[in-house]
Amino acid sequence: MLIAPIFIISFFLIDNPIFMNLLQLNDVNIFIGNEEVFPELSDLISKKKYSRIFILVDENTLQFCLPVLINNCPLLKDAEILETESGEQSKNIEICVQLWNVLSEMTADRNALIVNLGGGVICDLGGFVASLYKRGIDFINVPTTLLAQVDAAIGNKTGIDLNNLKNQIGLFASPQGVFVYPHFLRTLGKKQILSGFSEALKHALISDKDYWKKLKKIKLANSDLEEIVIESIKIKKDIVEADPLEKGKRKILNFGHTIGHAIETLFMEEGKELLLHGEAIAAGIICEAFISYKKEGLDHSELDDICDFIFKKYKPVLINEKSWKRLIEIMQNDKKNKNNQYNFTLLSSIGNAVINRPCSEAMIKEALKFYILRSSILKR
Ligand SMILES: NC(=O)c1ccc[n+]([C@@H]2O[C@H](COP(=O)([O-])OP(=O)(O)OC[C@H]3O[C@@H](n4cnc5c(N)ncnc54)[C@H](O)[C@@H]3O)[C@@H](O)[C@H]2O)c1
Ligand SMILES: [Zn+2]
């Protein structure tokens, strides 16, 4: 495969903190920066001469992000606003049908554009809706959460959930561009920042021990977030570029997600407590680090390092033994399974991941037990 060249333009000025990074993931430009990203966005939109422009938001990005976007890109002031309720429950086929109906009623043609202004839910949902409407219209991602900036908006995956099973329906589809403005993160609460932070931890654990060391020292202040966004996007970009359709290497991005997704689904089914994607992934990382220790020779001191840091940052997720059966059932539906075997991405050491590792049900249960034990030690 032809690997596209990487362009990185960075200029830091002391008085006027302009910083701008342009990364290229195959044919998708990813702009990361301050207000300078918006002229790039306007430029792309004006060149394409779209017949109609729609901006997909939820109630929070409508309030906090849309005014900033329109203020900086006046050509979007007449765009039609599509609003959906915030949260994972909007990532389903009924919402897609509603959005397709609105597009159709508003006579959106094949030359229309959808701008996804929001977190991972809006980017996944909007990309999916755009890619199927009239066999595909253009979309642009403007991610507004840490999770979407470091992960969900990058890499061309779109999709929705099916009966609470995560991302069961979806397709690979490239946005026309991704515009990352870390200032949007200033209105995000700490819980949401931590949720996104777990994907950055995953990036470090699977590919870069120095990044892991750096993340352990970070305070999560605004300036730290800019650094995390750039570093994580570079890691994800390199992985996706090497394997865009997840035939091999890209699977390393699934670390923490086999058990993490099952926990996320379990909480959605039970509907008791709202558990964010990244919070579930943080728990998944601990369980899968334990399996890595058992099966792949991850050093015990590195397992401790991972557990200590994650439990320092994240409140333990309450999973009791009664839910294990259901968790295992959910994992049976995991997209990564092959020939009815649970298929994991694991770590051989911090910074090095291995893919396609079969794992027994007994081992998964042992990992859940380990998680509960470690979290109970913490509570004492
Ligand atoms: N496609 C991918 O490759 C990929 C990768 C990782 C995760 N995901 C998906 O991403 C989703 C999670 O994304 P998320 O955590 O961004 O969730 P989200 O989109 O639900 O956003 C979290 C919350 O933050 C609010 N919000 C968004 N931007 C804000 C801002 N700037 N200020 C204040 N509030 C704001 C939203 O309204 C929402 O309430 C999951 O569905 C997950 O499966 C996809
Ligand atoms: Zn994730």
- In spatial order, strands of the major sheet run 4-3-5-6
Bound molecules: nicotinamide-adenine-dinucleotide, zinc ion
The beta-strand count equals 11
Q: Between the first and last Cα atoms, what is the distance in angstroms?
A: 54 Å
Q: How do the helices and strands follow one another from N- to C-terminus?
A: EEHEHHEHEHEHEEEHHHHHHHEEH
Could you explain how this protein is built, in words?
The chain is α/β, with parallel strands linked by helices and 380 residues long. Helix content is 48%, strand content 18%. It contains 14 helices and eleven strands. It has helices at 37-48, 59-64, 66-72, 93-105, 120-132, 146-152, 190-207, 209-217, 222-242, 257-270, 277-295, 300-313, 324-332, 361-379; strands spanning 20-25, 28-33, 53-58, 80-84, 113-118, 138-143, 157-162, 165-172, 177-180, 342-349, 352-359. The strands form four sheets. The protein has a four-stranded parallel β-sheet. Strands 1-2-9 form a three-stranded mixed β-sheet, with helices on both faces. A two-stranded antiparallel sheet has the order 7-8. Strand 1 and strand 2 form a beta hairpin. Helix 5 (120-132) packs across helix 6, helix 7 (190-207) runs antiparallel to helix 8 (209-217) and helix 11 (277-295) crosses helix 14. Residues 1-16 have low confidence and may be disordered. The site of zinc ion has 5 residues, from helix 11.
